[in-house]
Amino acid sequence: MCSPEIAKVVSERIAREGRPQLSRRNLLKAGSASALGLAFASFAAPARRAAAQGEAGFEVIDLSHVFGPDMPVYTLGEEPTRETYLSVEENGYFIQYWTFYEHVGTHCDFPAHFIADGETVDNFGAGQLVSRAVVINIAAKAAENADAMLEVADIEAWEAEHGEIPTGAVVFMNSGWASRWPNEDFRNADAEGGQHYPGFSGEAVTWLLENRGINGIGVDTLSLDPGNSATFDAHYAVCGNGIYGVENTANLDALEGADNAIVIIGIPRWEGSGGGPTRVLALVGA
Amino acid sequence: MCSPEIAKVVSERIAREGRPQLSRRNLLKAGSASALGLAFASFAAPARRAAAQGEAGFEVIDLSHVFGPDMPVYTLGEEPTRETYLSVEENGYFIQYWTFYEHVGTHCDFPAHFIADGETVDNFGAGQLVSRAVVINIAAKAAENADAMLEVADIEAWEAEHGEIPTGAVVFMNSGWASRWPNEDFRNADAEGGQHYPGFSGEAVTWLLENRGINGIGVDTLSLDPGNSATFDAHYAVCGNGIYGVENTANLDALEGADNAIVIIGIPRWEGSGGGPTRVLALVGA
After folding, report:
1. Per residue in B133-172, pLDDT tens?
2. Cys-Cys link to B221, which of A272, B113, B197, B208 (CB 3.0-4.6 A)?
């Protein structure tokens, strides 16, 4: 049966029987993650901590912006497009048609983005897509200087307060930039078109790789590097060392300071890609 | 700084310094999920079970096929396209350009796919995207009859052996069909173009909604309904009741029978969508 025939069948069914009524379930009953009765053990704490959490469950935090044509993008003209291809009213069901360039919206950079023989999204190990999450806040200095970088000193200050970053973590920079999304001051271009927002220093990424064995980094801005970078040190440190970087994350305030957080990089297995649109979710122990 | 300028900078840097060497990290050290030291408590078991699992960690199972132009699709002609837009060699970094219709590959159907005022992907509660996972195997009858359905009797037989399906689960049909991907017998069209593969019966979905408060269903075939359906009962039961359905899942054999499994629906927040490409990952307690 081909598509027009299917659409005809569905349309005739709707004309005959009407559309089904929405009978919303009790979301409190079935829909919240905390109803799942799952618990996380702390990475560093003794095993009894898991017992104390018991059936307490966890919370899901969405670190993703909506992906659509009106998003701020690194390179103007690379905005995605969407249009209605089939609709419930005319065809019985709804499908949109999309076009996009890979590195826009909440998305992830993989090695092949900067390295010709680097690993692609479709072949990257799924085990590395689920990681401990750490958030380092540099909003105070970013408010003073849009070109600020997350430096080794910021990592050391974070560890002095919170303890050592665990092996295999994703380390996020929270520069406070997500509150500007999707306005023009998110991209924050000057009169010459140069962009100004915070990012990681290459040294900080290299330090995290060598000393903490990170799985990846994440930023709440358009680029792993600060917007005014001409050398892309953070991109090279990430892609050249077989890890990944997440850009345009949302809602890091909610994740900051949470115990037992893990982050899931929900990127479809885009064939041959150096990156692409991603759902980034965090699970936080209750 | 605009894109051509950036590309020039990157190209010049590569010409001057050469590309960075890949210095692969020790994946055993940092890359495997089991190194994360996280543990899941069993849904039904007492809290001490979590303590017993202690720092044992969990395994990540990828339930997703590669997303690309050569995938089998429900409606011929709706295959996605990809092309190289920028390359490392010529531009300093690599970006592909994609086009796609939403409902192909490993993807998820949300209410708006069949219901004009149904919830869209971008606004669907993130808490429902992380769920307990249950796999019901109907491969034996599917091998006899490609039009077989997962029926209420199959659910009852599963529960007789494994116990009651927990509230808020995603229930997957494992029909053995994933081993046919991406060959023609996955779509399995007859001489008239009619498709033949298994799916859920509408009654089974309704039973799971009313009696087990499920978050969603999943199939290893092209459609929630069997390929020969003319009435789309499973689609209406899913979309009409505010839950979701996952299509073209892979690797359910690895998930089947696993204790403490949860599934994560990693779908980018496609604006206004009734569904779209998705990374489906499962976490299985060690």
Report:
1. 999 999 999 999 999 999 999 999 999 999 999 999 999 9
2. B197
Asked if the Cβ–Cβ distance from A98 to B98 is below 8 Å, we say yes
Residue B13: count of CB within 10 angstroms of its CB: 16
Q: Considering its fold, how many domains does chain A have in total?
A: 2
Nearest partner of B67 among B91, B90, B100, B111, judged by Cα: B100
**B33–A contact, CB cutoff 8 A:** yes
Average pLDDT over residues B249-265: 92
Q: Tell me whether residues A2 and B76 touch, CB distance under 8 A.
A: yes
* Structure tokens belonging to residue A126: 């799924």
ipTM: 0.86
Is residue A73 assigned to a domain? no
Domain that holds residue A277: 105-285
Residue B240 sits at the chain A interface (C-beta within 8 Å): yes
Domain for residue B139, yes or no? Answer: yes
Q: Which of A 121-160 lie inside 8 A of B, CB atoms?
A: 122, 125-132
In a domain, B135, yes or no: yes
What contacts B92, CB < 8 A, 6 or more positions away? Answer: A114, B6, B7, B8, B9, B10, B11, B13, B14, B86
Within 8 A of A228 by CB-CB distance, chain B residues are 1
A97 in a structural domain: no
Same domain, A27 and A151: no
For chain B, positions 55-84, list CB contacts with chain A under 8 A. Answer: 55, 59-62, 64-69, 74-78, 82
pLDDT higher than 60, residue B221: yes
